[in-house]
């Protein structure tokens, strides 16, 4: 059954936790959808996981649309949220609305996500007013990593904690139905969750949020050696994939792949015809 804003808000109401993972293509979103993950985020983290950049800043609208479309095709049940990439919504409210509309029209995603609190209040309000659901993202916002001096925990200290809480109120007032709390201390994240009506989704924000999001490549251990503190690797898929590639390489090289049963032997020409062919050329 398709997850919708209504079903997700009802889960929150019942105290049921909401699962979210990032996906960037059809094959991964099919698997996540089959596992009954509630919501899939087409994160601009694809700049790092899929494109090998060191941050999310180079990702473009066109790239989000290509990846987003393929994710939506693989996810008949999950609620799909797509990130607005860096500089697609900061310049003006008009540009934010136009780009949010493009992402929804051209990918079929169900909602957009944008980073920031007070600074993007007007953008959130205008996008919601057009009928596009918005997931906000506060705390550590990776598109502003250069301002923070890196990917650092936010909301430490009383003044910062108050600012993160106020950002939560601001994005909710602007109309966000969901808000990612990234790298926010756990007690503060739990307090925010108890104070707002929107759905909170934590990443590095403790267990007190309404739901959790992880980058698929992190939870499957496909991100190389780097492992943020808040990541749990639920499987060693990366190592298992390398092992599978190694076995394939060895089988190609020793001639054991493909075997007869892995060939179209039944459709082959007669030996007599092939002998003639051999003689003719
Ligand atoms: O881009 C992304 O993957 C994200 C999540 C980490 C929340 O914004």
Outline the structure in words.
The chain has 281 residues and is an alpha/beta fold. The chain has two domains: 5-235, TIM Barrel (Alpha-Beta Barrel), CATH 3.20.20.60; 241-280, no CATH class. It contains twelve helices and eight strands. An eight-stranded parallel beta barrel has the order 1-2-3-4-5-6-7-8, surrounded by seven helices. Helix 4 (61-73) packs parallel to helix 5. It is elongated. The chain starts with a helix and ends with a helix. The model has no long low-confidence stretch (mean pLDDT 96). 3-methyl-2-oxobutanoic acid binds at residues 22, 41, 43-45, 83, 137, 180, 182, 203, 213, 215.
Keywords:
281 residues, 2 domains, single chain, binds 3-methyl-2-oxobutanoic acid, 12 helices, elongated, alpha/beta, 8-stranded parallel β-barrel
Query: What kind of assembly state do the chains in view correspond to?
Result: single chain
Largest sheet: 8 strands, parallel, barrel
- The CATH architecture of the largest domain would be Alpha-Beta Barrel
At the third CATH level, what is the topology name of the largest domain? TIM Barrel
CATH class wording of the largest domain: Alpha Beta
What does the radius of gyration come to? Answer: 23 Å
- Principal-axis shape equals elongated
pLDDT averaged over residues: 96
The helix content, as a percent range, equals 40-55%
Q: Element order, helices and strands?
A: HEHEHHEHEHEHHEHEEHHH
Bound molecules: 3-methyl-2-oxobutanoic acid
* Class from helix and strand fractions: alpha/beta
Strand content: 5-15%
Count of the domains: 2
- Beta strands, count: 8
Distinct helical segment count: 12
Low-confidence stretches: none
State the CATH superfamily name of the largest domain: Phosphoenolpyruvate-binding domains
Whole-Å distance between the termini? Answer: 60 Å
């Amino acid at each position: 059954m398709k997850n919708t804003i209504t079903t997700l808000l009802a889960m929150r109401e019942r105290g049921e936790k909401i699962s979210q993972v990032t996906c960037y293509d059809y094959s991964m979103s099919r698997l996540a959808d089959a596992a009954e993950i509630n919501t899939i985020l087409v994160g601009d983290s694809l700049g790092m996981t899929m494109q090998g950049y060191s941050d999310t800043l180079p990702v473009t609208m066109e790239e989000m649309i290509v990846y987003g479309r393929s994710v939506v095709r693989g996810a008949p049940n999950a609620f799909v949220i797509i990130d607005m990439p860096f500089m697609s919504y900061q310049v003006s409210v008009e540009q934010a609305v136009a780009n949010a509309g493009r992402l929804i029209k051209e990918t079929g995603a169900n909602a957009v996500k944008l980073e920031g609190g007070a600074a993007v209040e007007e953008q959130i309000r205008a996008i919601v007013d057009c009928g596009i659901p918005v997931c906000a993202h506060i705390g550590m916002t990776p598109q502003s990593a250069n301002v923070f001096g890196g990917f650092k925990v936010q909301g430490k200290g009383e003044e910062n904690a108050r600012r993160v809480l106020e950002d939560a109120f601001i994005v909710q007032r602007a109309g966000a139905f969901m808000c990612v709390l990234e790298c926010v201390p756990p007690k503060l994240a739990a307090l925010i969750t108890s104070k707002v009506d929107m759905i909170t989704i934590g990443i590095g924000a403790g267990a007190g949020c309404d739901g959790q999001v992880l980058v698929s490549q992190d939870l499957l251990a496909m991100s190389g050696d780097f492992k943020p503190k808040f990541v749990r690797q639920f499987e060693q898929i990366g190592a298992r994939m390398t092992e599978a590639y190694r076995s394939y390489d060895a089988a190609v090289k020793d001639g054991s792949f493909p075997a007869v049963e892995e060939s179209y032997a039944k459709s082959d020409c007669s030996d007599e015809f092939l002998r003639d062919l051999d003689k003719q050329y």
